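Example record

The entry below shows one chain as it appears in the dataset: sequence first, then structure tokens.
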Amino acid sequence: MGVGVIPALTASEGIEAISNHQPDAVLLDVMLPDMSGLDAFKLIREKDPRLPVIIATAAGSSDTAIEAMKLGAFDYLTKPIDVEHLERLVGHAIQSRRLASVPVGMNNLTKPEDKGDAFVGRCPSMQEVFKAVGRVAQQDVPVLVRGESGTGKELVARAIFQHGARSQGPFLAVNCAALSETLLESELFGHEKGAFTGAHDRRIGKFEQCNGGTIFLDEVGDMSPLVQSKVLRLLQQQKFERVGGNSTIETNVRIVSATNRDLEKMCEEGDFRNDLFYRLNGYTITLPPLRTRGDDRVLLLQHFLAQLNKELGRDVNGVAPDAMQRLLDYDWPGNVREMQSVVKQALLHCTGPVLMASALPAEVHSSAVKPRSDSHGVTSATERGEEHPQQGGTSDEAGHAAANGSAASFASFIDDRLVAGGGELYAETLAHMERELLTRVLTRTGGNQSEASRILGITRGSLRNKIRTNGIVIGPDITVKQ
């Protein structure tokens, strides 16, 4: 591997060597003559919390391995040690250590908000959202928040409430898509005892509870016609009856609603009331999808990394350049909510002070950005990356070309076998597909079998068997023996 090795026979000698030589990685046995490896590991962490430490354990000692990972070990090995695996693991540890000392994607983390969620965004479209919230917050009119799932519609609703005249009143949120018609009607308007099967007591609905405050109706496009008609009356008169009741109840609520559906089209098709749409749409705020927000993605990654470091008790202070590139190339179909989930998963897989590409979930490893259609089925130039058109091919074209080339190769393989005849086409095709899959994944992980087995969802032992069976050679490049 071209690295120097400094041996130490005891924990005390090893800790002294770490102080004298500042190594890039440590290989630590749990069985030492003067103290346990885990106790030695704690002392190493006190000296240098960013130093990658690989723990070597006896086969089957899962408790020790789990405890080591909980304490922050880079990884662990079981005995007898697979030398090739050891070399790869040490290589990754050294790379992690060196990346920690060079400029990385995010080296100036913001402090996470202590008082709750925070708006993050500097792009023009998000600045317009902030301005819109400021304009409408004090105005006691209904607001319709529009945008794809995961873009932060509830966050906008809460900002309107917090900056509005009703900020001292209640704020209640109801997901209209999560409840059946009967349950949603009862949730919003309440019910009298005996109104329906299971209604053993009177229930006060959200509109009654929220008197003087703001109610947030999420996924408002999923309301049934019956509920739509009752919400319309409430908007018009601020009056309603509980389910099964005759008494008219007056309330005073502000409605902020949200949807990711095309309400105009639903109105045309008779699935949503025109008059209710006009009432809800007193003021519209549209949230942009994350894939169109440019450098805001870096700000959000920075924000979530700082926030989740604090939440999970981690100390990841940067993102490796290749990991950052993959995060920026990803399409984010789940928008901001998905980014938060991805960063959390990556931090849980991360074993060093730098978030590396190998820690990212499998879905992020797709380099081709998938263009999306707007509500009319037309892909915008901005979402295709054509804000600044280039003369050469785009990354999308390269991704599609690679995918098409792979599909053509697979089709050619089948055609050749059909021409050749024979009765083993099914088995041959499966074997061909398995070799293709394994070589692609191993190439993606740089030969890291632990990461490859995680992506494939199989054990390392099973992966090793498949590598051997398929004649795959792991070196500087992943090749197949002919």
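Notes for this example: The first helix runs from residue 11 to 21. Confidence is low (pLDDT under 50) at residues 102-110, 112-116, 367-403.
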